[in-house]
Amino acid sequence: MSNANYSISFSFAVDAAKMRLTLEAEVEEHHSKTYYVVSNFRIPGHGDRIVLPPITIQKEDGVWVHKDSGKPTDLSAAAGRAIDELKLPAFSN
Q1: Which of 16, 38, 75, 82 is the most exposed place for a label (fewest CB within 10 A)?
Q2: Dihedrals phi, psi of 71, to nearest 5 degrees
């Protein structure tokens, strides 16, 4: 069951943290065990060109991980921090 959609903007380190990009994306919140589908990653000011495929993330024990692998990445952490900053009332993990 899908509940809500949000837009996020966050900084993401690439190339072994030699460079930082600002990314925007759409977040779709799902409930059962709360998880988020983050999609439409794009660079602000560069049109609507999608630069990364969608990811599905959730927070486990305070760490943002990919739902399929249960493992964190720099991208799941950065997108998760942006979701945390939204201070969503339904999020309880």
Answers
A1: 16
A2: -110, 145
